[in-house]
Amino acid sequence: MFKKVLIANRGEIAVRVIRSCQELGVDTVAIHSKADEDSMHVKMANESICVGNNSANESYLNIPAIITAAELTGADAIHPGYGFLSENARFADILEEHDIAFIGPKSQHIKIMGDKIKARETISKTGIPLVPGSEGSIVNLNNLKKTAHKIGYPIIIKAASGGGGKGMKVVYTEENLIDQYDLAKSEAEANFGNDEVYIEKFLEKPKHIEFQIFADKHGNVIHLGERDCSMQRRHQKIIEEAPAHNINISEKKKVLNSIISAMKKIKYIGAGTVEMLYENGKFYFIEMNTRVQVEHPVTEMITGFDIVAEQIKVASGLKLKVKQEDISFSGHSIECRINAENSKTFLPSPGIISAYHTPGGPGVRVDSAAYEKYKVLPYYDSLIGKLIVHADNRDLAISRMLRALNEFIIEGIDTTLDLHKAVISTKDFKSSNYDIKWLEKFLARK
Q1: Does the pLDDT at position 164 exceed 80?
Q2: Is 53 inside any structural domain?
């Protein structure tokens, strides 16, 4: 087991990692920007060290400073959390060169899955179903038109190195194809430094279902079921739940068997999430995330499996102590992402939290780094916390979430608490009658 872990992140996920380290008896090092010196993760860690100025590029993305921090503090491993450097293969390689363990998969798997085209090529050989799309990247306009015609409209153009909805354009007719193609390429270049794009069939009313897998260095691979992450705005997840409701169980089992087989074949290590679209009883692979997900708590709540603690154990070389037959699924869990944003305009709302009270009671969990008088900074993501509930069934989980949302008090800044109350209260949510486009239609009606 590691003696000291440096957390190359901030906010709620840094706090989450520190808590697991504490329970494992592992010392922690918190890195922080100058603006973050009073943050909760800094206060909770055994040690802390400033790695740069306020912007992420100067601090949480500053690889030389982070390596130096690890060497100065004697950290023998780094947990990257999510975002920032969590899916940066170069960072993983550099850590290996410095004899510091990366708590995550091999860099080769980060590279493959980080490139959406290579990911499709890899997955196409495993038996996992793919959304119909181009074979490789689009190389010219003739290739673009021919492939779009073959797939059939509507299509979606995606950045090969994309994520978070950037570099994605939906095209319904050929007359808009070239303009949207040019826009997607320019967005991809601006956001990822790579203008390579590919195209897929655009599914009209899919759900977004993702499968959590976990693997050790000894060839053992298990799955922890699935999550429904269909409640999205501009491809950003808002609410997640586990297990998914009203899906084809036999198809789910087939997909899970294919995923487990594929992960064994490529010798994957650590936590991974295979994201799929689900429409008309069928699953289609879209991408794989090679890190812990923001929404991992809902899986932990229904399985009792500490994903973050197991990441640390597996990275240190320990075998998984559980087999697939040891994993049991209990009840239902829902997570609401609480952002420092206006519920109507979605404009960021940095500032000082003047009052802060978290909900409690049976089956309620809050993952957050916020507190009263905490200053929400304008330099980073607007996520300030996650409210998670667990109950014996979905109906009770919904009632519990509404109760918890009403108890949650955050004053001094705008938050998305009111949006969550409105969405959770709808008949469509209660009946699980929603897809990835539902939220934007709901907001347009308000």
Answers
A1: no
A2: yes
